[in-house]
Specification:
- Strands 1-8-5-10-4-3-2 form a seven-stranded antiparallel β-sheet, covered by helices on one side. A three-stranded antiparallel β-sheet has the order 7-6-9, with no helix packed on it. A two-stranded parallel sheet has the order 11-12.
- By secondary structure, the protein is an alpha+beta fold.
């Protein structure tokens, strides 16, 4: 595979973006034919997940999340060995970063605006240490247009703190004007990759098109983060043996003789109702 990347990835630029806006990206990181294969894998895995109770979790009307096995995504090794991916992980999370999650999110036609949220409660490393200890990488499977319900983010809000909200994720509605005023819609194209703090306040918006908008997600932790506890990243012995050390050494995994369906239980009630 032809990997497209800049010659250097400056740590200062990476830190400035993730500690400032809370999201950065690299355009044209992968060729379009590579992305076509990724979408084929996503569509196959979604069809399989829908046949299993708990295989696909709702994230709102006509919106689903599916956690998958790395070896079922043909481009997984390409992603996690890409120089930009590695540079971002090492710069923000340190040399002992851990890959803890692989999954995808699909808003279909009819998906509604989500409430503003972050993906989990702010850890002490951030509230007291003022440090980001996890990242989420996103790769779109389509050329995103406004009608598809693009991802919307409120830059700089990874540092926001608010009390008394569900699971530490959902800011009270009286704070929503702050996020609406700061909101930026992201319109990535096939081949682009982004990295963000999952603490940055964001939402999926309404998909008014006639197309789905699949997005692959790779979650990565610093050694002190605990997100691996919420995932079940499985690998078979043969696949594990085939991985280069630079991938295997950063992977948090459970070895299995045969892949088992990832039955997901972490339904997020706050995302199941549209935000009007």
């Amino acid at each position: 595979m032809e990997v497209r990347h800049q010659d250097t990835h400056e740590p200062a630029d990476i830190m400035r973006g993730l500690y400032g806006d809370g999201i950065i990206g690299l355009k044209g990181a992968f060729p379009r034919d590579w992305v076509v294969r990724m979408r084929e894998d996503i569509e196959t895995l979604f069809a399989e997940a829908r046949q299993v109770p708990g295989g696909a979790l709702p994230r709102g009307p006509q919106r689903w999340y599916v956690e998958v096995h790395p070896e079922r995504i043909r481009g997984f090794v390409d992603i996690v060995t890409h120089p930009w991916f590695v540079a971002v992980c090492e710069t923000v999370l340190g040399p002992d970063y851990r890959i803890v999650e692989v999954g995808f999110d699909i808003p279909f036609p009819g998906a509604a605006d989500q409430p503003w949220h972050r993906d989990f409660a702010v850890p002490e490393a951030t509230t007291k240490g003022r440090r980001l200890n996890s990242l989420a990488f996103n790769l779109t499977a389509v050329d995103t247009i406004p009608e598809m319900g693009p991802f919307e983010v409120a830059p700089g809000t990874q540092w926001d703190q608010f009390d008394g909200c569900a699971k530490g994720m959902f800011p009270p509605r009286e704070l929503w004007p702050r996020y609406i005023a700061r909101a930026v819609q992201k319109l990535p194209r096939m081949g682009d990759i982004s990295a963000r703090s999952a603490l940055t306040i964001h939402r999926g918006t309404a998909n008014r098109s006639d197309q789905s908008r699949p997005v692959l997600v790779v979650g990565v932790d610093a050694p002190d983060a605990t997100n691996a506890q919420h995932h079940d990243l499985q690998v078979t012995r043969g696949y594990l043996a085939s991985l280069p050390p630079r991938v295997r050494d950063h992977l948090t995994y459970r070895v299995v003789d045969a892949l088992e369906t990832v039955v997901q239980h972490h339904t997020i009630e706050g995302l199941l109702k549209p935000a009007y």
